[in-house]
From TrEMBL:
Domain PDZ: residue ranges: 327-365
UniProt KW keywords: Signal
Superkingdom classification of source: Bacteria
Presence of keyword Signal: yes
InterPro entries, per the entry: PDZ, PDZ_6, PDZ_sf, Peptidase_aspartic_dom_sf
Descriptive protein name: PDZ domain-containing protein
Signal sequence, start to end: 1-21
Pfam hit, one: PDZ_6
Length: 399
């Protein structure tokens, strides 16, 4: 499960089947690769692939995207600002574009006033050029259709029948964020009910805040400890993975894998107006209509079976950084998992799996899953440049 859910509709496949001109007005196709990847344009001419993040406000651009495309100075004057995020680090000083940047997405065109430059690919990999938050995309009602891998920008009043078979959630729209009421039962001793943040910028199931987890009796609960060097915009992150008996937002999901945060800082620490966040391994099970003017969230269960009951079998997390190196960087490890026990470390670069160079493994193959099982050989480049092969026996989930 960890941070990387992959079942997607690829842009190239989508647009090879139908031309861009054939896409109806107001429809934005997306790739679903744990996040919603949208094709957009900056300042009328610059193509950009962004993710939609309901946990963010406006437009952010990736530092390496700008460097590799020679766009460091393409969007006007720069300044500096401090920025934190979901990670466990202190706010950092980052570059920002202080001249407006125009972004065209679907039928809408927005002018972003301040554009932060962040290390987004360190978290999500080479296919992420930036992210777009609610300030722009949620100016109109949105249908987020995971069945058809598209977003529709809606107009009010809604067409007759649009909300047929949808269920309205108990929701609130405050401070440019969306929260919904839900119930979570980890076991007979630990049951929660309250507000959860809707976070399409999260590829997991549910992550409870540190404060919420601290209030629970989890001493005897089986758990797996996970550490990552880039768990969010705020930097490194420490989580614990457990199994929960039930989660109910509209229907009931059973035996799901969830996390809780150990972060002392950031969006998953203390003093938050929500129990935790709900990510895309849950949201992708539903087609969704967001109606900001009426503070409404409507959902309809789709045919996606999901992977919410599955935890990691490699016991590590990687990001594809073949844009800047020869492989996939190990971004996170489970304590005591097969990868850590073998000697793999955070920051290692996987250059081959079973003697196949990972830079030749397409994004489509990655999304479908490599189906690794049993004895698997990882060829890895260490920080000192040394090449070492590790053999992992891939079998059991981490929890």
């Amino acid at each position: 499960m960890k941070k990387t859910l992959f079942f997607i509709c690829l842009f190239s496949a989508l647009f090879s089947l139908r031309s861009v001109a054939a896409v109806p007005d107001g429809v934005i196709p997306f790739i679903f690769d744990g996040h919603l990847y949208l094709q957009s344009t900056l300042n009328d001419t610059v193509p950009v692939t962004i993710i939609y993040d309901t946990g963010a406000d406006f437009l952010y651009l990736d530092e390496d995207y700008l460097k590799l495309k020679n766009l460091q100075n393409a969007f006007g004057r720069k300044g500096k600002a401090k920025m934190g995020g979901a990670g466990n680090s202190e706010p950092k000083l980052i570059d920002i574009f202080i001249d407006p940047v125009k972004i065209h997405c679907g039928e809408q065109e927005y002018e972003n006033q301040i554009t932060p430059i962040i290390k987004l690919r360190d978290i999500l990999g080479r296919h992420t050029d930036g992210l777009l938050g609610n300030t722009h995309l949620l100016k109109t009602p949105l249908e987020i259709n995971f069945s058809e891998c598209c977003i529709r920008q809606l107009k009010e009043p809604f067409s007759v029948g649009l909300l047929d078979n949808y269920i309205k959630l108990n929701a609130r729209f405050e401070d440019n964020r969306i929260d919904v009421k839900a119930k979570l039962q980890i076991d007979d001793k630990n049951m929660l009910e309250g507000w959860f943040r809707m976070d399409l910028g999260c590829g997991s199931t549910i992550i409870l805040t540190n404060k919420t987890a601290s209030s629970l009796n989890l001493t005897d609960t089986p758990k797996a400890y996970f550490c990552t060097q880039a768990g969010g915009v705020g930097g490194a992150s420490d989580d614990v993975t457990v199994r929960a008996a039930k989660f109910c937002m509209v229907d009931t999901l059973e035996n799901l894998v969830i996390d809780y945060s150990l972060n002392e800082k950031g969006a998953l620490s203390f003093g938050r107006p929500y129990i935790g966040i709900i990510g895309n391994e849950i949201w992708s099970l539903y087609d969704i209509v967001l109606d900001p003017a009426n503070s409404s969230v409507w959902v309809k269960r789709n045919k996606n079976k999901g992977t919410y009951a599955q935890s990691s079998v490699t016991h590590m997390a990687t990001v594809d950084r073949t844009d800047i190196c020869d492989g996939w960087i190990v971004n996170g490890l489970y304590k005591g998992g097969i990868a850590e026990r073998a000697g793999i470390e955070i920051g290692d670069i996987i250059i081959a799996i079973n003697n196949r160079l990972v830079k030749k493994i397409t994004w489509e193959e990655q999304r479908k899953g490599l189906g690794l099982k049993g004895e698997t050989i990882y060829t890895i480049k260490k920080a000192n440049g040394k090449i070492i092969s590790y053999t992992l026996f891939i079998d059991k989930q981490i929890i």
